[in-house]
Amino acid sequence: MNIFRIEALRLLLVLTLTAMVASCRNTVPTIAYLKAPKIVKSGDPMTLSWKVNNLGRHKISIRGEHSKKSLAAKSKRTYWPQRSRTFHLYVKNRKKKTIARKVVRVQVVNASFTGPLKVLAGDPARLSWRVLVAARNIKLAEIVNGHLVIIKEKLPKVGYFDVRPTQATNYQLLIENQGIVHFDHHIEVKEAFFMGSRVVTPQADAILQWRVNPKAEKVWVEERVEGKYQKLQENLPLDGRMMLQPKYAQNYYRLVVERNGKQQHFPHQVRIKVARPYIRSLQPIAKIKPGMKMSFEIFAYDRSNYPKEIKFQVMAYDPKGNFVTGLAPNDATAKKYFLGLAEQIEGETFPINDFKVTEVSQRVSKPYSIATVLDYSGSMWGVTPNLETAIKEFIKRKNPNDEISVIKFDDQLVRKVERARNANDVIKKSAFDGESGGATALYAGADEGIKTIEKSKYHRILVLFTDGQENSSFTFSDSHAFTAKQLVKRARETNTRLFTVCFGEGANRNLLEAIALLTDGRNYFLEDESEIAQVYQELPYIFKNYYEVSYRPIKKDGPHLTLLTYNNLETVDTSSSTTFIGDDFDPNMYEDFARKVIYCPKGKVLKSSQDKTKVNTSSKPTQTPTIIDVKAARKNQPLTPPQAVAFFKHNNSKIDQKYHKNLEVYVRYLQKNKKAKVYILGHSDLNGTTEGCQRISQERADAVQQFFLKKGIATSRMKIQAFGRTRPVWIEETKKAHGRDNRRVEIILVE
Questions:
Q1: Which of 703, 687, 702 is nearest to 742 (CA)?
Q2: Is 207 in contact with 243 (CB distance < 8 Å)?
Q3: What's the distance, CA 22 to chain centroid?
């Protein structure tokens, strides 16, 4: 009996265990939840979370997710969607058959909401918006004492609304659909604006402008003299301007506004720039007033007939910026002003006894083919409107037979106009809209300009405007110049003179001067936006009015320093400039990255001998940079400046698919050039801790390295450096685009 009971219990236990195992085998995984916000703003982070019951040995996958890591039964992921997206969560067995599936839809709202950043108290400020998705309701609101106050609702998808803030105010555009998202705009309110020229040339006038709150009682301008402010002019209108001539190297002015017995001060500084005035009109020598001096400047060369002949162009001007005409109607008159000529090569001076001077005026000048190449990268934000105004005037001032090309560049190249003559058509086709953004393909952009005019039968000139440094041309390495040396070579081969215009401290002045010198043009260095219009006003004058000096040069490669002695109407003076003969040059040596990151030039440096030349103390210093002797420079130098190859979302190191084409260009180059190596530089934006920024910049550099490893590039050919937030493109991230520009990986090619 006992044996029977034991066997029965054993049988029952076996049956129970069998049933339990069978039950486990038949358990089907279920998705408990898949959560995501219904609506988010474009570019904002969103979290997708999920939980799967009874996952067992099954696997979870998300459509569009390319990561090879296994997903946990309960987890979450962060995304930065740019457009509306449907997320599909799948649970699959070993045979990759779908067992369970759940879907969640996220609507992404794309919209722009803009307006002025600063206004005068009580003045109207126009807020404009554009919503690119369907919306149940669009509202405009302002934040008052921490509370949201609706100004207007049921707004159209595209529209504007004028507000009159009396204090600093935050405005919000509320877009309602399945939920609500908001776009913000902040307006600063000032009691007065006081602005004007910041940099002027000697004896030039400065312009001061102001606009004051209508409730102000008195307005006047003061100037600081010997440490104390003195009234310069009082009883001024609330909206006005004045012209004055600064007296000192640094001049201090302030606008004083009196309201309710209290005074407010608004300062403004004007600095005198030690440089010649910009040419703005013509003046015959016969009308130059007694006691007024004249200056000469060599500004362009023509080497096309070397070694038989070299020509260079000279501008003669008075202190007011008038080009002086009538100095060379014949040889006898020319000899009164053009007194002597010499070449200096490697410190040795060679007098030129036989030279000819010809005066060229607009009446006899030959047509030009001019490529205007314009930097529209992100750093140009705020400068572009002034630049476009100046370009339009430049195009209007051209001679009817001159051809004009217009090229815009950031990290893309856009050929807006190619060799057109009608000024109105050029302006219309250029579609000047003030928009700017992206990286800076400086060399490729300039090369694109050369391509538009290289087949022209006219004199070829390229005017290149930039406020930054090269960081994106290698993407176009298959078809365009991507180094300064390549660009110079292209210009010399096509006999194209480059006039480089660099604006602000962000531009590499030494490099742009070297490019202009090596292509027989001229460099302008601008410190104030008011100078942009003056440069583009001057160029048509000097292209059509100049003195051409021709002579037989010394036959020798290298830099030729030209020394022109002239009569300045008071005494003897000297003007100098340099042209380069031969191909032993390398403007890449002037790249900032070459000096700071890897390359330190060694060996012989060929300097201008201007310091050894006895000249009048009033003569203007040449803007000729030194030329580094390439033969003495060490090898293993950088081939490119740091190139921005990928940008990232905040706190993210995943390389977006659209940047793969940039990296593929490097892969092809490295596969073809086995001795080439790359430096991979990771960067972050300015948000977060120092440690966090350093970590994410390292992860971004690692991601690019992994891309190259998968393409077969050996680790030994790559060096990684993470800079965190220590080397930002923008030191203040006042716009979303600024943070985006800072979150980048750069590459330097080294051979």
A1: 687
A2: yes
A3: 68
Tokens encoding 449:
């300009």
Residues of the chain with pLDDT under 70: 1-2, 4-5, 14, 16-26, 43, 64, 66-68, 589-590, 592-637
Name beta bridge partners: 673: none
| Sequence-distant (≥ 6) Cβ neighbours of residue 49 within 8 angstroms | 33, 34, 35, 36, 75, 76, 77
Contact 86, 101 (CB under 8 A): no
Are 499 and 462 in contact, with CB atoms under 8 Å apart? yes
Residue 145 burial (C-beta neighbours within 10 Å; 0-12, 13-18, 19+): exposed
Residue 559, C-beta contacts closer than 8 angstroms, at least 6 positions apart: 345, 578, 579, 580, 581, 606, 608, 627
Nearest to 111 by CA among 44, 56, 49, 53: 44
pTM beyond 0.85: the answer is no
Whether residue 406 contacts residue 465, with contact meaning beta carbons closer than 8 Å, is answered with no
Instruction: Using only the alpha carbons of the chain, give its radius of gyration.
Output: 34
Q: Which pLDDT belongs to residue 71? A: 86
| Distance, CA of 79 to CA of 392 (rounded, Å) | 44
User: What's the pLDDT score for residue 19?
Assistant: 59
Give burial (CB, 10 Å; 0-12/13-18/19+) of 166: exposed
> What is the per-residue DSSP string for 288-318?
PPTT---EEEEEEEE-TTTTT-EEEEEEEE-
Element (H, E) at 668: helix 660-672
Whole-angstrom Cα distance, residue 497 to residue 550?
17
Q: How close are the terminal C-alpha atoms of the chain, in Å? A: 94
Which residues make beta-bridge pairs with 269? 252
Beta-sheet pairing, 98-109 with 39-41 = parallel
The whole-number pLDDT of residue 616 equals 33
Phi, psi of 132 (to 5 degrees): -100, 10
Phi, psi of 235 (to 5 degrees): 55, 50
Residues 392-429 have pLDDT tens digits of 999 999 989 999 999 999 888 999 999 999 999 999 99
Burial class (CB in 10 A: 0-12, 13-18, 19+), 257: buried
Q: One-letter amino acid identity for 717?
A: R
Q: How far apart are CA 213 and CA 222, in angstroms?
A: 19
pLDDT of residue 33: 93
**Which SS3 state, helix, strand or coil, does residue 321 take?**
coil
Quote the distance between the C-alpha of residue 147 and its chain's center: 39
Which DSSP category does 639 fall into? S
What's the pLDDT score for residue 443?
Answer: 95
Buried/exposed code over 272-281 (b: 16+ C-beta within 10 A; e: otherwise): bbebebbbee
DSSP H helices in 398-461? 423-430, 442-453
Res 602: pLDDT:
36
Burial class (CB in 10 A: 0-12, 13-18, 19+), 7: exposed
Q: Which residues have CB under 8 Å from 21's CB, separation 6+?
A: none
Backbone angles phi, psi at 489, to 5 degrees: -60, -45
Those residues whose C-beta lies under 8 Å from the C-beta of residue 745, and which sit 6 or more positions away, are 644, 645, 646, 648, 680, 681, 682, 683, 700, 701, 703, 704
Which residues have C-beta within 8 Å of that of residue 145, sequence separation ≥ 6? Answer: none
Token pair in block for residue 450 = 């050369």
**Integer Cα distance of 25 and 717 in angstroms:** 52
